[in-house]
Amino acid sequence: MKIVLLGYMGSGKSTVGKKLAVQLGIPFTDLDDYIEECLGSSIPEIFLNKGEIYFRKQEHLHLRKILESEGDKVIALGGGTPCYSNNMKLILEKTPNVFYLSVPIPELNARLLTGKADRPLIRDLKDEELPEFIGKHLFERRNYYSLATHTIQAGGKEMHELVSEIVTLL
Q: What is the mean pLDDT of residues 141-167?
C-alpha cells in the first residue's frame, strides 16, 4: 500500500507523513529528501545550479521509482510535484490513497515566514508579498490538488488528529 500526501509547501506533509508511517508501521519517504540524497545536492542548490526544468524532470523520475518500488510506504510530495510531468495521473494510477492536506492561506503564511530561506520559490520575496504569492499559487495548483482521493482540512489541527483522520479513511 502506497499512501501519498500532497499539498502546498508548509502544509505539514512531511511531519504528518512521518507520524502516519510510525503509526502504521511502514517506511516513510519524503520525495524532496530522496531526490537530494540521489543527486547529492540540496533542492535550493539544484534550482540554482541546474534550474527548475532539470529539477522537475528528476522529480518525475524519482517519483516513478518510489511509486513502482516494492512494499508499503507513506510518501510526502513536494508542493509542486502534482502539477508537473503528468505526475498526478501517475500517482492516481499507482494508488487510491492520495491525501491533500489543505491549509488556509494565513496559516501557510505564518508557517512559511520562518523558513523562507530554505524554499527556492519564496526565498527572494518580501514578507508582505508572501500571502498574495501563496494565494496565486494555490489558485493555480488547486486543479491538481483537488484530484486527490481525499481532502483533509488540516488548518488548526494537531498532528495526531490529522493522522487519525487519514487512518480512518484508509
A: 95
